[in-house]
Amino acid sequence: MYAHSLSIVLVILFATLALTSSASANLQFHACAKYGHGLYVKITDELNCREVREEMHSSSQIVEVLSRAFISANATFCAKVSRTVCTKCFLRWSLAVTRDETAVQNITMSQCVEMQRSQQLNGIRLEQIDANRWSSKQPTEYSYGW
User: Fold this and answer.
1) What global pTM score does this model have?
2) 45: pLDDT confidence band, cut at 50, 70 and 90?
3) Looking at the chain, which terminus has fewer C-beta neighbours within 10 angstroms, N or C?
Protein backbone atom coordinates (compact mmCIF):
# COMPACT_ATOMS: atom_id res chain seq x y z
CA MET A 1 0.00 0.00 0.00
CA TYR A 2 2.84 2.36 0.89
CA ALA A 3 4.67 1.57 -2.39
CA HIS A 4 1.48 2.13 -4.40
CA SER A 5 0.84 5.59 -2.86
CA LEU A 6 4.52 6.46 -3.30
CA SER A 7 4.37 5.61 -7.02
CA ILE A 8 1.21 7.75 -7.42
CA VAL A 9 2.96 10.70 -5.73
CA LEU A 10 6.00 10.23 -7.99
CA VAL A 11 3.80 10.13 -11.12
CA ILE A 12 2.05 13.35 -10.05
CA LEU A 13 5.42 14.95 -9.29
CA PHE A 14 6.86 14.01 -12.71
CA ALA A 15 3.70 15.22 -14.47
CA THR A 16 3.92 18.56 -12.65
CA LEU A 17 7.60 18.92 -13.56
CA ALA A 18 6.87 18.08 -17.20
CA LEU A 19 4.10 20.69 -17.38
CA THR A 20 6.19 23.42 -15.78
CA SER A 21 9.23 22.69 -17.94
CA SER A 22 7.13 22.75 -21.13
CA ALA A 23 5.49 26.00 -20.01
CA SER A 24 8.85 27.62 -19.36
CA ALA A 25 10.06 26.36 -22.76
CA ASN A 26 7.09 28.09 -24.41
CA LEU A 27 7.85 31.27 -22.50
CA GLN A 28 11.50 31.18 -23.57
CA PHE A 29 10.50 30.68 -27.20
CA HIS A 30 9.25 34.28 -27.38
CA ALA A 31 12.11 35.83 -25.39
CA CYS A 32 14.31 38.23 -27.35
CA ALA A 33 18.03 37.80 -27.39
CA LYS A 34 19.80 40.33 -25.21
CA TYR A 35 22.60 42.13 -27.04
CA GLY A 36 25.12 44.44 -25.44
CA HIS A 37 24.27 47.26 -27.82
CA GLY A 38 21.57 48.33 -30.20
CA LEU A 39 18.22 50.01 -30.22
CA TYR A 40 14.92 48.14 -30.02
CA VAL A 41 12.20 49.58 -32.26
CA LYS A 42 8.55 48.54 -32.24
CA ILE A 43 7.36 47.42 -35.67
CA THR A 44 4.08 49.17 -36.51
CA ASP A 45 0.89 47.18 -36.91
CA GLU A 46 -0.33 46.30 -40.37
CA LEU A 47 -2.89 48.63 -41.91
CA ASN A 48 -6.13 47.75 -43.75
CA CYS A 49 -6.41 44.31 -42.20
CA ARG A 50 -9.84 42.67 -42.18
CA GLU A 51 -9.07 40.62 -39.14
CA VAL A 52 -6.59 41.00 -36.31
CA ARG A 53 -5.62 37.87 -34.38
CA GLU A 54 -2.88 36.89 -32.02
CA GLU A 55 -1.17 33.74 -33.18
CA MET A 56 0.77 31.32 -31.08
CA HIS A 57 3.76 31.33 -33.46
CA SER A 58 4.35 35.05 -33.87
CA SER A 59 7.72 36.18 -35.11
CA SER A 60 9.81 39.09 -33.93
CA GLN A 61 12.02 41.22 -36.13
CA ILE A 62 15.29 42.79 -35.07
CA VAL A 63 16.25 45.96 -36.89
CA GLU A 64 19.64 47.68 -36.77
CA VAL A 65 19.49 51.46 -36.63
CA LEU A 66 22.75 53.11 -37.66
CA SER A 67 23.74 56.75 -37.45
CA ARG A 68 26.65 58.87 -38.59
CA ALA A 69 28.63 61.21 -36.41
CA PHE A 70 31.78 63.25 -36.91
CA ILE A 71 34.67 62.38 -34.66
CA SER A 72 38.01 64.02 -34.25
CA ALA A 73 41.13 62.01 -34.88
CA ASN A 74 44.80 62.80 -34.64
CA ALA A 75 46.46 63.15 -38.03
CA THR A 76 49.73 64.48 -39.37
CA PHE A 77 49.77 67.01 -42.19
CA CYS A 78 52.80 68.87 -43.46
CA ALA A 79 52.97 71.72 -45.94
CA LYS A 80 55.81 73.87 -47.20
CA VAL A 81 54.87 77.56 -47.13
CA SER A 82 57.16 79.85 -49.09
CA ARG A 83 56.86 83.55 -49.86
CA THR A 84 58.31 85.24 -52.91
CA VAL A 85 58.76 89.02 -52.93
CA CYS A 86 60.13 90.74 -56.04
CA THR A 87 61.26 94.34 -55.92
CA LYS A 88 62.36 96.90 -58.47
CA CYS A 89 65.03 99.40 -57.59
CA PHE A 90 66.88 102.15 -59.44
CA LEU A 91 70.11 103.19 -57.74
CA ARG A 92 68.36 103.14 -54.37
CA TRP A 93 66.33 106.22 -55.29
CA SER A 94 63.14 104.32 -55.96
CA LEU A 95 62.12 100.97 -54.54
CA ALA A 96 58.88 99.20 -55.53
CA VAL A 97 57.44 95.73 -54.91
CA THR A 98 56.51 94.12 -58.21
CA ARG A 99 55.38 90.72 -56.96
CA ASP A 100 54.42 89.30 -53.55
CA GLU A 101 53.24 85.68 -53.56
CA THR A 102 52.77 83.02 -50.93
CA ALA A 103 52.87 79.42 -52.12
CA VAL A 104 51.71 76.37 -50.18
CA GLN A 105 53.08 73.03 -51.34
CA ASN A 106 52.22 69.59 -50.01
CA ILE A 107 54.97 67.38 -48.65
CA THR A 108 54.82 63.60 -48.96
CA MET A 109 54.16 61.62 -45.82
CA SER A 110 57.65 60.09 -45.84
CA GLN A 111 59.21 63.58 -46.07
CA CYS A 112 56.91 64.78 -43.28
CA VAL A 113 57.90 61.93 -40.96
CA GLU A 114 61.58 62.44 -41.81
CA MET A 115 61.24 66.19 -41.15
CA GLN A 116 59.70 65.56 -37.73
CA ARG A 117 62.38 62.99 -36.89
CA SER A 118 65.44 64.95 -38.06
CA GLN A 119 64.03 68.49 -37.65
CA GLN A 120 65.43 69.37 -41.08
CA LEU A 121 63.95 70.00 -44.51
CA ASN A 122 66.22 69.60 -47.54
CA GLY A 123 69.29 70.03 -45.33
CA ILE A 124 67.99 73.24 -43.71
CA ARG A 125 67.69 73.11 -39.92
CA LEU A 126 64.20 73.86 -38.55
CA GLU A 127 63.33 75.50 -35.24
CA GLN A 128 60.02 75.00 -33.49
CA ILE A 129 57.87 78.15 -33.28
CA ASP A 130 54.94 76.59 -31.38
CA ALA A 131 53.45 73.13 -30.92
CA ASN A 132 52.54 72.69 -34.59
CA ARG A 133 54.76 75.15 -36.51
CA TRP A 134 58.39 75.03 -37.54
CA SER A 135 60.50 77.66 -39.32
CA SER A 136 63.96 77.85 -40.85
CA LYS A 137 66.60 80.45 -40.04
CA GLN A 138 67.46 80.70 -43.75
CA PRO A 139 64.19 81.75 -45.30
CA THR A 140 65.64 84.37 -47.64
CA GLU A 141 67.23 83.80 -51.03
CA TYR A 142 68.42 86.70 -53.14
CA SER A 143 68.75 86.79 -56.89
CA TYR A 144 69.71 89.80 -58.95
CA GLY A 145 68.55 90.53 -62.46
CA TRP A 146 68.23 93.37 -64.96
Assistant:
1) 0.38
2) low
3) C
